[in-house]
Sequence to fold (280 residues):
Amino acid sequence: MKITLLTSNKKRHNYLINLLSQISDELFVIQECGTIFPGIVPGHYPASPLMKNYFENVDNAQNKLFGNSYVDTKKNLKILPMVSGDLNKVSLDKLSNFLKSDIYIVFGCSYIKSKLVDFLINQKTINIHMGISPYYRGTDCNFWALYDNNPHLVGATIHLLSKGLDSGPILYHAMSEMKIDPYEYTMSTVKSAFHSLAQRINDKSIFDIDPLIQKKSQEIRYSKKIDFNEKIVGEFLQKKIDLKSKKFQNSMLKDPFFLIDKLILLLSRSAVSYTHLTLP
Fold:
C-alpha cells in the first residue's frame, strides 16, 4: 500500500510520519516547514511574551504525548520539504512522484487550492481536522471549544477533503479520555486521531465507512486566524477550565473513537508489528 501525506514539521507531524511509515509499503511525504518556535518567532501566530507563555504550555503537552519525534528515515519513506505557503505554487508535474498513491492524507499543512485540491478531492483524500465538525470549523478549533466551555467538543474530525474548510463528509470523530491538564487533553485527541486512522487503514475498515454530510446549521463557531489574538489568549490563560463541566454526548458525534492511556501503548506495539505484514 502506498500512502501520500501532506503535513507540517512539528513533533506531532513527525510522529504521524513515523506511524504511517510502519503500515505502508511506501510513504510519500510533502512536508511544509514553518517555525518550531510559535509565540517566539513570528509566523502563523504573532510573537509576544503572552503568546510565548501559551505556546510553551502547548509544547510541553506535545513533548509529553509525542516525545522527541524525529523522522525515522527508512527505505520506504520519501520526503519533499518545502517552505510553508509554497504548496500552492508547485505544479502537479513537480509533485508527480508523490501523487501515485493508494491513500492520501492531509494534516496540518496550509490551505490547499488550485489544481492540487481538485486532484486530492478526486482521490478521496482524508483530512484530519483538529476540531469537532460541524460544530467547530476553521483554525484553532479545540482552543475555541475550551474557551467556549465545551470540553466535550474537543477532538478531531476525520473527513473527506473538500474545497470548503473542514466541511467535507465526516468519516468519524476521534476523542480522548478527560485529562487534568487542558493542553494535554487537546494534544491527546491528536494522538487519538493518528492511531485510530493508522489502525483503520491497516485493517481496511476505513474503506467501509459511510461518510456523513455535515450540517451547517449545527455550527457553533467558525474561527479565523485573526480571531486568535493576544486579548483572547490572555483571557484563556486566566480561565479556570473545568474539563468535567459537560459530559460527552455520543449523539453529537459520528462513530467516536476514544483513545485512553492504556490503549496508546497497545496500539503503538501493534503498529510496530504491522511492518511484518505484506500489504496489497
